[in-house]
Amino acid sequence: MADSSLDPASFWTQANALLRKNVTYQKRNIKTNIRLVSFPFIICLLLVLLQGFINSQLDKPSNNCGCACVDTNGDGKCQKVCGLQYSDLDQAATCPIPNPPEWPPLLQVPAPEYRAVRTDFLPFTDLPNESCRSSGSCPTTFLFTGNNQSLGQILAGNMIKASFNLNASDVVDSLATNVVGSDTYPQTTNFLDPAFFSGVPIYNVQSRCSSNSTLSVSFQEFSINVQQEVSCVQGLPLWRNSSSEINNELYKGYRKGNSESKINEFTAAYDFLNSNGNSFNVSIWYNSTYKNDSGQASIALVRVPRLVNLVSNAYLQFLQGPGTQMIFEFVKEMPKPQTKLRLDLSSLLGTLFFTWVILQLFPVILTSLVYEKQQKLRIMMKMHGLGDGPYWMISYAYFLLISLVYMLSFVIFGSVIGLKFFTLNDYSLQFVFYFIYVNLQISLAFLAAAMFSNVKTSAVVGYICVFGTGLLGGFLFQFFIQDTSFPRGWIIAMELYPGFSLFRGLYEFSQASFMGNFLGTRGMRWGDLSDSVNGMREVLIIMVVEWFVVLFIAYYIDQVMSSGSGKSPLFFLRNFGKKPSTFRRPSLQRQGSKVFVQLDKPDVSQEREKVEQLLLEPSSSHAIIVDDIKKVYPGKDGNPAKFAVRGLSLALPRGECFGMLGPNGAGKTSFISMAVEESLKSVNLFNGGVADKQAGKYSGGMKRRLSVAISLIGDPKVVYMDEPSTGLDPASRNSLWNVVKRAKQDRAIILTTHSMEEAEVLCDRLGIFVDGSLQCMGNPKELKGRYGGSYVFTMTTSSDHEQDVEIMVRHLSPQANKIYHISGTQKFELPKHEIRIADVFQAVENAKSRFTVFAWGLADTTLEDVFIKVARGAQAFNVLS
Ligand SMILES: *[C@@H]1O[C@H](CO)[C@@H](O)[C@H](O)[C@H]1NC(C)=O
Ligand SMILES: *[C@@H]1O[C@H](CO)[C@@H](O)[C@H](O)[C@H]1NC(C)=O
Ligand SMILES: *[C@@H]1O[C@H](CO)[C@@H](O)[C@H](O)[C@H]1NC(C)=O
Ligand SMILES: *[C@@H]1O[C@H](CO)[C@@H](O)[C@H](O)[C@H]1NC(C)=O
Ligand SMILES: *[C@@H]1O[C@H](CO)[C@@H](O)[C@H](O)[C@H]1NC(C)=O
Ligand SMILES: *[C@@H]1O[C@H](CO)[C@@H](O)[C@H](O)[C@H]1NC(C)=O
Which residues form the ABC transporter domain (predicted)? Predict the structure, then answer.
């Protein structure tokens, strides 16, 4: 209906208006805004407080390097002394250790219940009988293979000693010259070897054990008194014909995947390959899973070095004889200073919290968009001249601005209070990530807004999404990310859900800052994106692509369904210049409407033809084209259905004011309400004072003028006014008319009124509307000429002379028609073509000489007369038919 070629208000005028509207909306929701903005601050403060609490807990003595009250100088008073010697394994991590203790090198020996025995799933009969498990006396088995069996057997014999030689005055050294092992799990450091602090015996591996083979040793290492049980375990070397046999045997004994009874663990296995007297070539199997790294990223030590030393020493002895020894004396850590335990909470909890903080904006944008839809603000703004393009651009820019300000204050605040999450990661990387994400989020909100028409529903769904995404991310998705065996493709597929890509990005930031804090280095840098385990690159790519795709889909859906423009789903395939008329109806209905065409008055059917013509050849000069619209109020409670509007066609060029006249209930308001029903509602809504409380303070008349002024603000092409001057004093009415007259120059105005004066002053054309159809249309003069082809003659005499007056009139005009008479006052209609005004004066002068004339008058027909005539005529016709 609206014409696209008209100059709209400039982009900046629209932007300015929309911005002010938004600002007003924000001001009105100031409390919500304060709550929204304070959310990230509260989260950050909460993190800082928790961090402080955790730090104070970590700084407690029980978490620090072990200390004790010791009487150092023998005066009976104790002094606090700290150091490794008072620590347990956990506290040792923070102690200063300038001279780390020396520990004998150990083999990793399987625990007695896991040691290899004869089973039905292995063909070898040289393994010990299963009965040894119950007594805990199973030997620990070594497997050997190689190209030369005799050489292999010599080397194996050299490795396992026949006896255990302990020098009580130098226990550590003598443990090193024997073969000792432990079934405890190694730690990440060797400051305190768990084998000597776990309370279980270490094993001395011998070729044969006597019955009472457990002895106790004690030694002092770094002022720590170590009491240690040493029990004998038989070392059993077994030859296998090939390395594949060994592989098979080790594999079948694996603890996982087998029931307990089938576990068969070996100490180690050696393949001597092509070794001979000139070259030594060996490969060693060992179990790298034997380490205590429950979830920690740091690498646990594995007891391998002694395995290498053992076979090297055996080869040396094969070459040089048993007198030569290659002794592996001790294992010792690097010295270290005192450290503090530190745990960066913002990196640990940040992912979940920050996901919530950022997602918060989604329901905010969503509800704001749905609010505009629910309150019909969007359609109203459109009515007032706001184009789709500017609406999108301005709203988008507005939300982007809000999001960026929100994110900026979030990052700045987080950095100021020192959260490592923000300070350690590269700021430009953070900016790019947040920028892309908020854009994606705004596009998503536009898309989601198309699905909602109720603010409350959208708010509920929005917040469920926020919290659901955070929780799913934190308690499900995160495990998939951490599980390195989980297929990467599936993770990327999950990241297609924008909430998860946000979560992943924040997770990567938090990991980087956590490790950076832990290792005392920095967080994520641009260069780290090329790192294959860093998921940030995929996330950025996914988000950029989704941003554009989602924005496009949202715009498309908006154009098709929600903007009220009624475009077909394939609108973009059509020529944009020829927008279909809103009032266009399916051609099927045309058949039925012909019934009315026959009854149309010539001027009305002429208008109908004009409309048909305009529909075939659209022209930009017409602001409104109405093609045969109807409205039927369905019958209720047994009453027949009422045709409020029957087949009305109308074309209004720009700059015309069209007046609708008609008795009450003629269908005027129904007409201007239709297929523009929405827009009218919003006009009424707006005029009715919903827009601004201040309007309530004006008087009724002021309000009307205000609403007319408001309706003209946006430079709309079409303005509807429903009885605009009703109830105004003459002065106000005049000024209102002046406004309307000025305003009509560039737009089409449809105006309903009961004031004939108003219609005559303002309207270029009038239509008289009775019983749902136009009875006639034309400019006021034409109508008067057409329907008022008569003068109205009024004369008041005493009632005795009424007859005389009538005779006089009949004489003047035989076709005169008495339209009114009451106690001496009579009104006649005199057809213009039958009389001359001079004759009337003459006749009256004559009459005055014959009887007393109290008053008389001759008037041209008024619009009022036309109206009454047309209305009566049409109603009479309807009653007859
Ligand atoms: C295997 O090793 C032994 C001991 O060194 C050696 O005497 C023998 O010749 C070797 N056999 C072969 C086939 O190389
Ligand atoms: C035991 O160790 C001490 C100190 O290293 C040494 O003096 C002594 O000779 C050793 N005894 C034996 C029997 O090796
Ligand atoms: C290994 O080889 C020897 C000699 O070739 C043979 O006697 C023995 O049965 C083989 N062992 C197995 C388990 O195949
Ligand atoms: C290696 O050690 C792990 C952990 O102690 C154990 O579960 C597994 O069975 C061992 N594998 C073999 C082949 O002994
Ligand atoms: C050691 O053994 C491997 C496997 O049999 C062989 O590929 C390699 O050439 C050998 N190295 C030497 C120095 O003989
Ligand atoms: C790993 O170390 C922790 C503490 O250091 C200990 O509680 C746990 O029992 C160890 N696990 C194994 C399998 O030794």
Answer: 524-796
Check pLDDT > 80 for residue 209: yes
pLDDT of residue 745: 76
Quick one: 204 and 269 in the same domain?
yes
Q: Of all protein residues, whose CA lies closest to atom 10 belonging to ligand 6?
A: 292
626 forms beta bridges with 650
For ligand 4, atom 12, name the residue with the nearest CA: 254
Ligand 5 site residues (CB inside 6 A) read 273-274, 279, 281
Q: Is the pLDDT of residue 64 over 90?
A: no
Instruction: Say which residues have a Cβ less than 8 Å from residue 583's Cβ, sequence separation at least 6.
Output: 1, 625, 626, 627, 629, 675
| pTM for the structure as a whole | 0.49
pLDDT at 863 over 80: no
Helix (H) or strand (E) holding 506: helix 498-519
On whether residue 593 sits in a domain, the answer given is no
294, 298, 303: which to mutate for ligand 6, most atoms within 8 A of CB? Answer: 294
Residues whose CB is less than 8 angstroms from the CB of residue 542 and which lie 6 or more positions away in sequence, other chains included:
492, 495, 496, 501
Q: Which residue has the higher pLDDT, 638 or 135?
A: 135
Ligand 4 proximal residues by C-beta, below 6 Å: 250, 253-256, 265, 287, 289-290
- In sign, the C-alpha dihedral spanning 817, 820, 821, 824 is negative
Q: Indicate if 626 and 761 belong to the same structural domain.
A: yes
Distance (Å) from CA 292 to ligand 6 centroid: 6
Average pLDDT rounded to a whole number, residues 149-163: 92
Per-residue pLDDT of 544-586, as tens digits, reads 999 999 999 998 888 887 544 555 666 555 544 433 333 333 3
Q: Is residue 82 part of a domain?
A: yes
Is 573 part of a structural domain of the chain? no
Compute the residue count for the chain: 881
Number of domains within the chain: 5
Domain co-membership, 91 together with 109: no
Query: The domain containing residue 849 runs over which residues?
Result: 789-860
**Are 473 and 609 contained in the same domain?**
no
Quick one: CA torsion of 546, 547, 553, 558, rounded to 10 degrees? 150
Pocket test for ligand 5, best of 148, 273, 278 (most atoms within 8 A of CB): 273
pLDDT of 299 > 70? The answer is no
As a whole number, mean pLDDT of residues 22-46 equals 81
Same domain, 71 and 173: no
- Say yes or no: 509 and 409 in one domain: yes
- For the cut 70, the answer to whether the pLDDT of residue 290 exceeds it is yes
| 527 strand-pairing partners | none
